[in-house]
């Protein structure tokens, strides 16, 4: 119950006595027992039965809610002051005003009586009405209802909810009963959540730490009530990570794209795509060329890698929370260089010019070329052609050409050059 005034508040000074005590106010007292929806009866109502269960020698305090409905044009603050005066100065031995609310002028009173009769209730209601409008020049209807406090009913819409990690979410407990609750709190896994005092529990960004069993509690004059438990489960979209030891794959080799997949629940679908020139194609995992690439074995093996396997690879996983996709992984096909000399032996006339050439093929092109003569590296330009302007006897020997690219180093066969005519 919001804005509840209690005995700790400053006592409002008593109003002056009515100048015209003969004025009558029309009292429309419609007394209901809300939880049974029955009219309170003289001496035989539920309140009477509740009080007679106590020994005649003992007094039993029963909280009763009086709901006061006044005309719309009345000054609510003045009415509140009048009730406060009644509460602080009340000498009634049977009924004491315990507290009241600004909302709808609801008054909770403690009934201190072995047997509650309609006459006692009417007497108390007249005091309320007289206190609210002592100086009224004309009769205005005031409706006062006597309500038996009822146990609050707590209802959550579901017993289990699945929430995607990072999303906003609200759970709400529907609370009904009279009077309204004066305290609301939530428990998660048996521990009270601090700072939560409304029937709605808001998560701005739901996290795995928010998972658990939630119960809403509320308290009113009839006691404390609780909702059924609600289990909240955090779902996480799949996270897919790809890793390759090499991005340039040697032609003819088997290559593994390592793939790790996580998510809650575990993804139930996994697929691969390859993009070439902005065109995506689905990798057909049923082909003999591939192995793995499934939920149970997410890493993908590409057998006998060749130029047709070049492209940008991505992996996509799907679970109940949604889908997740890896970053792009570009694989290129490379091949070792092939070096070929036209002959294995040549005779060159002394003093003549001569050129030997090595034909090199492979992808990518060589980034380094050099020649060896009798296992000693020749100094000079790194070219596939070796030029002798004036062949000399000292140029005789066994020549081999070497070249390097991303796939490694390759060499040609041996070429023997012999100097003649000297």
Brief synopsis:
The chain is mainly beta. The protein is built from three helices and 35 strands. Helix 2 (76-89) crosses helix 3 (118-132).
Provide keyphrases for this structure:
Immunoglobulin-like; 6-stranded mixed β-sheet; mainly beta; disordered N terminus; rod-shaped; 422 residues; Alpha-Beta Plaits
Can you describe what's shown?
By secondary structure, the chain is mainly β. The protein folds into four domains: 4-147, Alpha-Beta Plaits, CATH 3.30.70.1130; 153-228, Sandwich (Immunoglobulin-like); 237-334, Immunoglobulin-like, CATH 2.60.40.10; 338-420, Immunoglobulin-like (Sandwich). The protein has three helices and 35 strands. The protein has helices spanning 46-52, 76-89, 118-132; strands at 4-5, 27-28, 32-33, 38-39, 61-69, 95-101, 106-112, 142-147, 153-156, 160-164, 169-176, 183-188, 191-192, 200-203, 212-220, 223-226, 230-243, 248-250, 255-264, 269-276, 279-282, 290-292, 300-302, 311-319, 322-325, 329-334, 338-341, 345-349, 354-361, 368-373, 376-377, 385-388, 397-405, 408-411, 415-420. A hairpin with a 2-residue loop joins strand 33 and strand 34.
Poorly predicted regions are 1-59
Give the strand content: over 45%
- The CATH class of the largest domain turns out to be Alpha Beta
- What is the helix content? under 10%
- The end-to-end distance, rounded to whole angstroms, is 122 Å
CATH architecture grouping of the largest domain: 2-Layer Sandwich
Number of helices: 3
Overall morphology: rod-shaped
Cα-atom radius of gyration: 47 Å
What is the total number of structural domains? Answer: 4
The count of strands amounts to: 35
Give me the CATH superfamily of the largest domain.
Answer: EIF_2_alpha
Classification by helices and strands = mainly beta
Q: What's the main sheet like? A: 9 strands, mixed
CATH fold-level assignment of the largest domain: Alpha-Beta Plaits
Mean pLDDT: 80
């Amino acid at each position: 119950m919001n804005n509840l005034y209690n005995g700790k508040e400053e006592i409002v000074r008593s109003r002056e006595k009515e100048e015209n005590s003969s004025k009558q106010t029309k009292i429309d007292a419609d007394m209901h027992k809300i939880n049974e929806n029955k009219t309170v009866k003289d001496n035989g109502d539920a309140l009477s039965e509740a009080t007679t269960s106590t020994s005649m020698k003992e007094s039993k305090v029963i909280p009763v809610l009086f709901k006061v409905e006044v005309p719309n044009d009345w000054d609510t603050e003045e009415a509140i002051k009048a009730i406060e005066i009644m509460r602080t100065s009340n000498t009634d031995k049977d009924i004491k005003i315990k507290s009241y609310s600004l909302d709808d002028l609801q008054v909770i009173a403690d009934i201190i009586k072995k047997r509650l009769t309609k006459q006692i209730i009417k007497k108390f209601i007249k005091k309320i009405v007289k206190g609210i409008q002592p100086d009224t020049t004309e009769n205005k209807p005031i409706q006062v209802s006597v309500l038996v406090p009822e146990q609050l009913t707590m209802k959550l819409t579901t017993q289990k909810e699945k929430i995607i990690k990072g999303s906003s979410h609200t759970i709400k407990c529907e609370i009904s009963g009279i009077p309204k609750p004066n305290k609301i709190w939530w428990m998660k896994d048996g521990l009270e959540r601090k700072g939560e005092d409304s029937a709605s529990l808001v998560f701005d960004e739901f996290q795995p730490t928010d998972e658990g069993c939630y119960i809403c509690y509320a308290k009113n004059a009839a006691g404390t009530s609780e909702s059924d438990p609600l289990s909240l489960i955090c779902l996480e979209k799949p996270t897919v990570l790809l890793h390759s030891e090499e991005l340039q794959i040697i032609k003819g080799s088997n290559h593994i794209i390592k793939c790790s997949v996580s998510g809650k629940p575990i993804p139930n679908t996994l697929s691969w795509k390859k993009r070439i020139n902005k065109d995506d194609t689905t990798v057909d995992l049923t082909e003999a060329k591939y192995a793995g690439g499934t939920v149970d074995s997410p890493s993908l093996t590409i057998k006998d890698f060749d130029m047709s396997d070049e492209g940008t690879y991505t992996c996509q996983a799907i679970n109940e929370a949604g889908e997740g996709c890896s970053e792009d992984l570009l694989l290129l096909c490379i091949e070792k260089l092939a070096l070929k000399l036209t002959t294995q032996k040549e005779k060159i006339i002394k003093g003549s010019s001569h050129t030997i050439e090595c034909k090199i093929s492979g992808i990518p092109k060589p980034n380094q070329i050099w020649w060896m003569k009798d296992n000693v590296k020749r100094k000079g330009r790194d070219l596939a052609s070796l030029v002798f302007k004036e062949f000399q006897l000292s140029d005789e020997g066994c020549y081999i050409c070497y070249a390097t690219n991303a796939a490694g180093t390759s060499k040609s066969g041996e070429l023997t050059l012999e100097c003649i005519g000297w």
